[in-house]
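In pairs, describe these two lines:
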Amino acid sequence: MERPYRVVVAKPGLDGHDRGAKVVARALRDAGFEVIYTGLHQTVEQIFETVVQEDADAVGVSLLSGAHLTLVPKLIAGLEERQRGSALLVVGGIIPDGDIPLLQEMGVAQVFTPGSSLTAICEWLATTLDAREVSG
């Protein structure tokens, strides 16, 4: 990695299952990222405020509740409103295959579903952020 990137890992909405988010957060930390985990039941407003306050390079949201097509657009709008639209947005969790292209059209950089390799997640994030860092 070009530098230790700051990544916010968040659990928006009412979903109370955070084991996957915690596992990914630990893997990112072990790979050299600076990770800020927001905890359960965060509003989108709390998430984008954390991204702003922490000057995060990326934000990963874990969604298991089926609310991804409602929450992600709100998160994107909030980040853009606060001039943090440049933060790389990654979504993980139970996302139907047919919704992945919709999320990517909205501006989600990558979607990781159950079974994604922790190594692949860390490598993809490092490579993508490095490419952005180098290009300017």
Summary: The radius of gyration is 13 Å. The CA atoms of residues 59 and 89 lie 5 Å apart. The mean pLDDT is 94.
